[in-house]
Write the structure tokens for this entry.
Amino acid sequence: MMPARRKLFVGAVIILLGLVFAAYNGARSSMVYYLTTTEFAGRPELRAARVRIAGRVQEGSVLKSGGESRFVITDGTTGYNVRFRGPLPDLFAEGKDVLVEGRLDGDGILLASQVISTHPVEYKEKHPGR
Amino acid sequence: MVNFVGEIGRFALLAGLVVALFGIAATTLGLTRRHGGYLASGRRAVTVWALLMALASAALLTAFLSRDFSVRFVAMASESTQPLLQTIMAFWGGHDGALLLWALILAGYMVVAVWSLRSHPDLQGPATATLLVVAAFFSVLLAGASNPFAPLVPPPPDGQGLNPLLRNPWMSAHPPMLYLGFVGMSVPFALAVAALITGRLDDTWVALSRRWIVVPWIFLTLGLLLGAKWSYEVLGWGGYWAWDPVENAAFMPWLTATAFLHSIQIQERRGMLVAWNVALILLTFGLTIFGTFLVRSGVLSSVHAFAKAPLIGYLFLGFLSALLLVSFGLLAWRWGALKSGGTVESVISRETAFLANNLLFVTAAIVVLVGTMFPVLTEAFRGVKINVGPPYFNTVMVPISIGILLLMGIGPLLPWRLATREQLARNFTLPSAAAVLGALMLGLLGVRHAGALLVFAGALFVSGTIVLETVRGTRVRIRRGEHAPLALARLFMRNRRRYGGYVVHFGVLLMLVGVAASSAFDTQAGATLRPGERFGVGRYTIEYGGLRHSELPGIDVTEASVRVWAGARFLGSYSPQRYFYRAQEQPMHHVAIRSSLREDLYLILSEWTPDGGGTIRVLVHPLVSWLWAGGVVAVLGAAFAVLPERRRRAS
């Protein structure tokens, strides 16, 4: 019969393997690439991936109609059209910094699942878009 | 005009650096030359440093109260229309003031710790030196890169004002509590380093460390709870925890400290895991410094890790590396002397339960660490930042939490060394029956969510074991002729650690039930309505009554009037609001929450139209109040457990 210490060791390894497996699955299903607009444009292999794009809301680009918002996110060099259904965060405004999470559709429009405002002051607000 | 307050503050911070360095030198000399006079100088340096930090804090507070906008930090974090409480809160409403608060709290802990170690002179010296090293690090930051008294020339007519997100009463308590927790971990760290240096990791060290880690643990728990409460009320999305890096930074040291509070008991009873326990303390303190670094350096929020990281980020990293290197170096050096006294003799024993507890808590800390640092790691190895979201954390933390929940019931009732079949049957038959019956009943009532059912059943099981233990203990006393209420009270008073621990466990299981229920069974709906229109959410009917606009100093307020019914019963009128801070051009939610033991009704005014229509979003979260109540119970239990036991009169 195995001594108690070895049994515990085997048990611990099994538990750890299970947790690592769960972590791996969780990470794979929730991975989001975090890039600026220009970097995103320079990485065609990420066209189908879920991405979080950092940029600025282009002045004069915001259009709202029937619960859907459209705007352009840009870093000054490269811009993407964004479509988002849902309430925009409190700090969302033209010219302000913004993070857009989502995927590109076939026409190169960024379909946002989440729009997050970033704020220059510390204690950044967390999840206003949810 | 000479800026008097600013001068005093700058002087105090600079003098603080000098005094801390002097104290380190004096204490080191005293230790190496075994010279009591030098050691006494070192202790006096602690007192003087504390007084200087108090002076600097008083100066900063004066600057805030006198609205001295020639001090940059005051101009950044306050404005003249701000009410008194918010002006005081502005002290920690920004980076530099927060660091000063940190130093002030460290000063308080140091004075008490050094004083209370007078009966352990061998530990007192090295602990003093270690604490002074931490003090010197914060003095370097405060005297240099993060000086809260940096001048602003020319002074603006008015300040920027406190970040509207922080203008919430919970924010008056959250940062101080969190810092009391974080900073307090430096005392057990200093004790561990002292014990490693002297080579005496004996029962004295165990008793001292346990007490000195429970105190910051209580504050850290409170800080986490207050932060969750703030998030729930202020951020307006109806959640209290989002695996945000800032939250994770505070959660990681809590996990390792909790692991220590359990594994120290194996060392106490069986002499095992000495080195492991020291490592947990070193790690806990390291994680508090690391957490501060994460929050303060902006490493995670910006697209590129070190592109914009300020000097202070590198200082923190340097300090952290030196700290871990030296302390773990000491541990390695003492490794031979830290042989475990005992071994696990049987799989089904209290020891196994504690080991499993530690496995789960430490794995949880690692999982949170990896998830938090994922973008930094992937940027380093693959050149692109990849974030992982809540699903990553949840898929691992849910099974870990359920495991910990079950252990809370199993562990305390397992005997040390070896459990017999009879003991197992005697201790676990009733609680298991309660759990199975409860789960069946909940299933029949329509609870179909497997994870939630498991948590509810586990909670019943744990409650069963706690009740069983309490009833047995009370019965023994009743048999000895005590009246039932007195017997129960004495049982608790005479075994504070044990029963305080049960109270903490009970609080934690209330929290887990609250978390499980509110995340598994939340409902939400929203509708854009004309005044007088209604819509239904679950059992509630919501009637929108229209908008009202008003003004507070510096703030435009838009308020919706909402009436709520549950079935035919009128529950009341609520007014979810939106604030618009004019100076900061920042809108803010002021949600309306109807909280009951059963569920929270969370009302948000999300948008409105100029002609008086409004969009109301409604979230229904069951049992959220259990989370807050459980947190309070856990904190009270821990406080009860750590109160000094009254010495029995010698008979």
